[in-house]
Structures are given as C-alpha cells and as structure tokens.
Inverse folding.
C-alpha cells in the first residue's frame, strides 16, 4: 500500500503521509519520498501528517534527510499522538510543526465574554472557548497562553487554556470554567448584586496592579500609547499634540501589571473566586493606562450611541456609568466627585488615541457615522488636554 502521496501546487510539493512508519517499512517510505522530491532541492516542501498514525526513530531519520535538502520543511495537521513523539525527540524545536485541531461549533452557544481580539462562548457547563477574529491567530493564541501562564505563576487567578480548536475558519482556545458566571451577567440579574460586583471588580484589579512583573516579560503600555500618537498628529493643533506627548512621556515607567481590557465580561465568578480571562492584552504600566482602557469599554466607545453598551457588556449605559464611578471611588478609597471626574478626564485623554486610531484604520473618515465619532473624541480630547497639566493621580 502506498503511504506517500505527492501533490504539486503553487510551486511547492506536499507529501501526504499515512499509516505507520517504522523499521519495517522505512526504506520503502524513504524511496517514495525521494522519488517525489526529485524535482529539485529548491522547491518548498510541506508534509501533511493528517493521516499519519505513528512514526518511529527510523521514520524520524527520513524527516531529517528531507530537511537537510529542504531547510524550509514544515509539517502540518499532526495528531496529538504523533506530535508527542515529535515534541519528545526535539523536532518541535527544529522545524515548524502545526498540530491538527479539532473542529467545534459555537452555534447556539451563549457569548459570556468579549475582548479586543475575540469573544468567549460557553460550550457546556464545564467548558468555554475563546474565539479569535483573526483567522491566522495561532501566534496570538500561543502568546496569550504563555502570558496567562506567567500571570498565573505570579498569583493572578486566571483560567489556563488546555487545548486549541478550529472554530468557523479561525482558531479558539478552550478553558475549563465550571459553572462560572461573568460579572456582567450578575449585574444584569439583580440590582442587589451591584455592590458585590463592584467589590469583586476592584479587589481583583488591585491584585493585578500590585503584581510586579519580571523585566521584559510584558509590553509597556506607555510605549504603546506613545506609538499611537503619530497617527493623530495631523488632526490636533501642534501645541495640543506637543502637550499631550509631554504629559505621556512624564508618566513614570512602572513594572506592575495591567490587564489592558479590564471590564465586567472579562471577569468570571467561579463560586466565590473571581477569575480573569482574555489575557492577550496584558502589559505593564501606571494604573492610569488601565483606567484609560476601562473608560473606553464602559463609556468612551458608546458615548454617542449609549444603547451600544447593551450589546457589548449586556447592561445600560447609565448602569455602566454608575459602575465606573463606584469602582473608581472604591479603588481610590475616596468617592469625592471632583477627584473621580479628574481621573475620568485623564483616562479619556489617554484612551482617546486608541479609539480614534481604530476608526481611522478602518477608513472612518469616509463613513459619516464613524467620522462623527472621530470628531467627537478629538474635540473632547483637545478640551481635556487644555484643562490639565499632567496625567497622574
């Protein structure tokens, strides 16, 4: 039985391997591979291992020989069993290897979380999946899994992904979250939950902000915001732009953790424990950067269309504003309206570039509705910059 099938397309060759490759048939398999690759050493080679059930050391030596002649060799659709062999023998560090991923459906599933890069769905009472909007999101997933693991080691209660799956043409991360409920759900269920949710929200936020992160492990939020500013230069008066840059650069560098997308759909209550999800935006920086991104989520993005917050967080804009004021007061230990307003204004200044940049990148100036948002945020941002001399608290 032929166990090697060669497919030539797009100036590359794909070798489809199947069955078992061991000492008994390694010579025959190697001969079939050599025959297929007689086209020349320059052609890119992909090995499709979707139907490969087992490979022994004799088969691994075939892969090494192919790689020697074709350094760009990569292996795709590798089963868990074969991947374990390749990982144990060091092949996963030597060449690109992509595992085969189970296909799942989220049709009819409840969306329980939402973040900058995807949504979180409950697929059964014990399991949730985070789906990614980017169809080529494997690197994003690997990054998020790694930073979530590091955050967990540093003491942040978070769900750890234990599997990667395919969902609607993209990828998803699977987590165990047994009967967990988001703070958004609790807020919408009863007004009696308001104070409890605010306390849980702030308690977890303070834990995050008190966590010092090893140097270089996470991106710097200050550097990110500064890097967004050039895209706004032509839309702001020169003195306003320069003042904003000076205020940003005056914010001290801080190696404590921030979440970067902290809102009530990204906090799950599992019993009495609050768990943080959607970890791909983790960074380090002064808490004012966290408040800036929180402002966007609770107030900024839906300021002109308040009903939009219901679709995003599941509750009214008025409730979102109350929750913002309540949690800010709890965090500061001071509910003085003037102080809360000042920090809200400063959060707006820092959060506006992210919102404006997002709409500009999708061609917002050509869309009347999007242009209305951009002009509103620019005007409010300019007004607040003139009002303050620093962005600290």
């Amino acid at each position: 039985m032929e166990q090697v099938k060669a497919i030539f397309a797009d100036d590359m060759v794909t070798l489809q391997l199947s069955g078992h490759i061991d000492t008994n048939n390694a010579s025959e398999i190697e001969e079939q591979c050599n025959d297929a690759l007689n086209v020349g050493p320059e052609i890119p080679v992909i090995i499709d291992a979707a139907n490969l059930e087992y490979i022994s050391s004799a088969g691994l030596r075939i892969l090494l020989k192919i790689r020697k002649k074709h350094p760009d060799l990569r292996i795709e659709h590798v089963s868990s069993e074969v991947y374990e062999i390749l990982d144990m023998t060091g092949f996963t560090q030597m060449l690109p290897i992509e595992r085969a991923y189970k296909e799942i459906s989220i049709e009819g599933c409840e969306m329980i979380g939402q973040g900058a890069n995807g949504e979180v769905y409950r697929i059964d009472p014990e399991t949730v999946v985070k789906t990614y909007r980017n169809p080529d999101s494997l690197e994003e997933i690997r990054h998020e899994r790694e930073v979530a693991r590091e955050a967990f080691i540093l003491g942040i209660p978070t769900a750890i992904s234990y599997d990667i799956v395919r969902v609607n043409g993209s990828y998803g991360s699977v987590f165990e979250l047994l009967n967990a409920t988001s703070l958004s759900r609790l807020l919408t269920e009863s007004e009696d939950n308001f104070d409890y949710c605010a306390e849980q929200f702030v308690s977890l936020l303070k834990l995050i902000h008190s966590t010092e992160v090893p140097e270089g492990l996470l991106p710097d939020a200050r550097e990110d915001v500064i890097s967004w500013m050039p895209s706004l230069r032509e839309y702001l008066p020169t003195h306003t732009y320069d003042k904003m840059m000076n205020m940003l650069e005056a914010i001290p560098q801080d190696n404590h953790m921030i979440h970067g997308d902290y809102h009530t759909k990204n906090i799950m209550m599992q019993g009495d424990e609050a768990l943080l999800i959607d970890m791909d935006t983790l960074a380090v920086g002064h808490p004012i950067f966290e408040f800036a991104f929180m402002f966007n989520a609770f107030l900024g993005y839906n300021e002109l269309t308040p009903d939009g917050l219901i679709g995003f967080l599941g509750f009214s804009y008025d409730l979102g504003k109350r929750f913002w004021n309540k949690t800010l007061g709890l965090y500061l230990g001071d509910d003085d309206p003037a102080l809360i307003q000042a920090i809200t204004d400063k959060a707006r200044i820092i959060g506006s570039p992210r919102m404006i940049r997002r709409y500009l990148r999708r061609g917002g100036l050509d869309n009347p509705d999007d242009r209305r948002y951009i002009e509103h945020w620019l005007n409010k941002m300019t007004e607040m910059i003139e009002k303050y001399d620093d962005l600290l608290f």
The two ends are 73 Å apart (CA to CA). The chain has a mean pLDDT of 93. Residues 104-176 form a domain with the Phosphorylase Kinase; domain 1 fold (CATH 3.30.200.20). The first strand starts at residue 4 and ends at 9.
